[in-house]
Amino acid sequence: MKENEMRENEETKYLNKLYQTAEMGTIGIDSVIEKATKEDLREALQSQRNEYEQLCEKTVSILKKYGCEEKKLGTMAKKSSEMMSEMKTKIDNSDNQIAKMMMEGNNKGIIEVTKLKNEYQGEDEEIKNLMEEFLKVEQDNLEEMKKYL
Predict the structure, then answer these.
(1) Full-prediction pTM beyond 0.85?
(2) Are 48 and 106 in contact (CB under 8 A)?
(3) Domain range spanning residue 81?
(4) Contact residues for 148 (Cβ-Cβ < 8 A; gap 6+)
(5) CA-wise closest residue to 105 among 20, 18, 24
(6) Could you give the number of structural domains in the chain?
(7) How far is CA 7 from each of CA 53, 71, 73, 131, rounded to the nearest angstrom?
(8) What is the CATH number of the domain that holds 25?
(9) If phi over 0 gives left and psi between -120 and 50 gives alpha, with beta otherwise, what is residue 13?
(10) Could you state, in chain order, the average pLDDT of each consecutive group of 10 residues for the chain (149 residues)?
(11) Cys bridge to 31: 1, 85, 96, 143, which one at CB 3.0-4.6 A?
């Protein structure tokens, strides 16, 4: 395998992990948004969902430059996330609980993207910038949810 092919595989590996992290954010929001009772919480969740969709679109755009398509989350990962949300909201479906769940998801996203950022050895500035943007979105979303606790 040529050096350039190895680099592309490395780049696409990180891009796909970013894509799946953003995809998990949309799934998490979809599983609770209808349960939120406060209109402003629903609007905040919809806004955050839009941000995750934009991150997915940006990731797909960069993947296309490498001649690749995104690797979506598997059915089991999606169903597992949906079932976990369902179980947690069956016990407590308050806006407080929804905000807490979203914050837990934001923390997981921050951890995952920080790990990816620290591991990434590539030179693609667009990927590095995307990772920074992703971290900012997760941190901002985490802060926004605090007011609903």
Answers:
(1) yes
(2) no
(3) 3-143
(4) 38, 41, 44, 95, 96, 98, 99
(5) 24
(6) 1
(7) 26, 18, 23, 17
(8) 1.20.1260.10
(9) alpha
(10) 54 96 95 95 98 98 94 89 85 94 96 97 96 98 97
(11) 85
